[in-house]
C-alpha cells in the first residue's frame, strides 16, 4: 500500500492508515489532483492486507473546505459538458471507492467540514467530531443542486429524509451537537482528544476479525437496494463464508479456553 502519496498526508502504522488533506493554510481544500489520488488510493486499499482500518483526519484545526474555489470552481465554469461530466463522475468515484474499499473508515472532523469535505465524512463508516465541527452540504450556495456525490442517497439514510432535505436545500451549517443528536456523528470529543479517540477506535476495530469487517462493510453497502428477504439470504451466505475463516475457529478455541481471542484476519 502506498504511503508516499503526493497530494495528501498518509501514515501507515500497526494496521492503521491515517490520512489527511494537506493544505491547512486554506482549510484543506480538494483539487483535481487530490480527488484523483484519493480515489486511486481507496481503490487500492481493497487489496492492501497490511491496512485494517483508516482514519481520515483533520489538519490544522479543519477537516476540509471542499473543492478549491480557484483551482476547481473557476476552471469548471469554462469546461464543456463532456468535461464537466468527467469531473462529476470522478468525484463520485471517490465516494464509491471509500464505500467499496473493504476497510472501516473513520472520519475525525474538526472545524470546517463542507462541500466535498462533508461528503467524505458522510461516506465514511463512522464519524467523530469536536465541538467546533461545522458541517455543511453547501452546493446550493454556489448555484448547484444538493444532489452531489451521492448525498441524496446516503445522507437521508444517516440522518433521515427531512433533516437531509433541510441541509441539502439550504446549505446551512450543521453544528456538532445537531450532528450528534441526528446520528451523523457517533460521538463528540474535545479537540485535543480527536485524533487519539479516532485512532483508538480504529485500533479496537482492527483488532477484530478483519475479514468479517470487510463482509460487514460490503453488506452495509449492498443491502441498501435489497428487499428484507434478499438481505436475509445475502447475510446467510456471507455468514456461512465467515464461518470458514480461521478467525471463527480461533474465537471458538479461545472461548473454550476462557481466553480473549486474537484475530489474524484470515
Throw out a few tags for this protein:
266 residues, alpha/beta, 11 strands, globular
Count of DSSP strands: 11
* Portion in strands: 15-25%
Principal-axis shape equals globular
Given as residue ranges, the uncertain stretches (5+ residues, pLDDT < 50) are: none
Radius of gyration: 19 Å
Helical residue percent band: 40-55%
Main sheet attributes: strand count, strand direction, barrel closure: 6 strands, mixed
Average residue pLDDT: 96
- Counting helices, strands and paired strands, the structural category is alpha/beta
Largest sheet: spatial strand order? 1-2-4-6-8-11
Number of helices: 11
| Sequence of secondary-structure elements | EEEHEEHHEEHEEHHEHEHHHH
Q: What is the terminal-to-terminal distance?
A: 19 Å
Please describe what this structure looks like:
The chain is of the alpha/beta class and 266 residues long. Helix content is 47%, strand content 15%. The chain is built from 11 helices and 11 strands. It has helices at residues 32-45, 69-76, 81-99, 116-123, 151-159, 161-170, 176-181, 194-206, 210-222, 228-242, 246-256; strands at residues 8-13, 16-21, 29-30, 53-56, 66-67, 105-109, 112-114, 126-130, 134-136, 174-175, 187-189. A 6-stranded mixed sheet has the order 1-2-4-6-8-11, with helices on both faces. A hairpin with a 2-residue loop joins strand 1 (8-13) and strand 2 (16-21). Helix 3 packs parallel to helix 4. The longest helix has 19 residues, at 81-99. It is globular. The protein starts with 7 loop residues before the first strand and ends in a 10-residue tail after the last helix. The mean pLDDT is 96.
Amino acid at each position: 500500500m502506498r504511503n508516499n502519496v503526493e497530494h495528501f498526508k498518509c501514515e501507515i502504522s500497526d494496521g492503521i492508515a491515517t490520512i489527511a488533506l494537506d493544505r491547512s493554510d486554506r482549510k484543506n481544500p480538494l483539487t483535481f489532483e487530490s480527488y484523483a489520488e484519493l480515489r486511486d488510493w481507496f481503490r487500492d486499499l481493497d487489496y492492501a492486507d497490511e491496512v485494517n482500518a483508516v482514519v481520515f483526519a483533520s489538519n490544522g484545526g479543519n477537516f476540509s473546505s471542499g473543492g478549491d474555489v480557484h483551482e476547481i470552481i473557476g476552471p469548471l465554469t469554462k469546461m464543456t459538458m463532456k468535461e464537466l461530466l468527467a469531473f462529476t463522475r470522478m468525484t463520485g468515484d471517490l465516494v464509491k471507492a471509500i464505500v467499496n474499499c473493504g476497510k472501516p473508515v473513520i472520519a475525525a472532523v474538526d472545524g470546517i467540514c463542507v462541500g466535498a469535505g462533508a461528503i467524505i465524512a458522510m461516506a465514511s463508516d463512522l464519524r467523530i467530531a469536536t465541538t467546533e465541527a461545522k458541517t455543511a452540504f453547501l452546493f446550493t450556495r454556489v448555484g448547484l443542486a444538493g444532489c452531489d456525490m451521492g448525498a441524496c442517497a446516503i445522507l437521508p439514510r444517516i440522518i433521515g429524509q427531512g433533516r437531509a432535505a433541510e441541509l441539502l436545500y439550504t446549505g446551512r451549517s450543521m453544528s456538532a451537537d445537531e450532528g450528534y443528536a441526528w446520528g451523523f456523528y457517533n460521538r463528540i470529543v474535545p479537540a485535543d482528544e480527536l485524533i487519539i479517540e479516532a485512532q483508538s477506535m480504529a485500533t479496537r476495530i482492527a483488532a477484530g476479525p478483519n475479514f468479517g469487517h470487510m463482509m460487514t462493510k460490503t453488506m452495509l453497502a449492498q443491502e441498501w437496494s435489497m428487499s428484507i428477504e434478499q438481505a436475509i439470504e445475502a447475510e446467510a451466505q456471507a455468514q456461512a463464508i465467515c464461518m470458514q475463516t480461521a478467525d471463527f475457529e480461533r474465537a471458538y478455541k479461545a472461548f473454550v479456553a476462557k481466553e480473549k481471542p486474537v484475530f489474524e484476519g484470515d
